[in-house]
Amino acid sequence: SKNMASAEKKPAPPSSFEVHAMGQIESCHFPGEDNLYCQFSVQHGNDWQVLSGMESGITQVASVPGGSESAMVWNFPVDLTFKSTNVYGWPQLVLGVHGNDFLNRHVVKGYGSVHLPTVPGCHELHIRMFRPLSSSLMQQFIGWVNGSPPEFIDPKRPALPTGREVTRVESVGVVVVKINVVTRNMSRFGYSTPVHQNVAPHRF
């Protein structure tokens, strides 16, 4: 009877593992640009579910301190908890930096994306931003005149694996994201996770 009682008290195995990411979209450096804000969203596989936190958001507008070449600082908080049963479709942070052109027209300054770190611990991510180029000089000139440079219809396009080989882009700047990752129950699903650690900056 004692064995039966102990068997009844044994907790059921977890039905999923969890990934918690907490940190901030810290800053950006776009040479020659000023007064920029960042729009972010999360892209993940079908098996993943967001338990808590905002899947999208917009930072405040940040400017370069007068007379300097330092970064524009947002320090916008990110706090997300996911659950899943497999690692396929590991969550990505998708970024779009926006501002105004020389005629004060709103334009997209750059896109970027990065997978959330798979190693628990504190991470500093340097994400290289890019923007698509026109297919010809004439289209580039028309876009410049109309204030409508090339941009993606789907803002999550930078996180998608298809179509990259036919998209012409140029590098425009860097966004810095600082994130702390905590995982739970991953070993129960056959995934090994290293001990929590502080990791040197990653550049993507």
From TrEMBL:
Biological process according to GO: cilium assembly
Keywords (A to Z) from UniProt: Cell projection, Cilium biogenesis/degradation, Cytoplasm, Cytoskeleton
Database matches in PROSITE patterns: C2_B9
Main localisation: cytoplasm
One GO CC term, this protein: MKS complex
Domain of life assignment: Eukaryota
Subcellular locations according to the entry: Cytoplasm, Cytoskeleton, Cilium basal body
Family to which the UniProt record says this protein belongs: Belongs to the B9D family.
Name of this protein: B9 domain-containing protein 1
Organism the protein comes from: Hemiselmis tepida
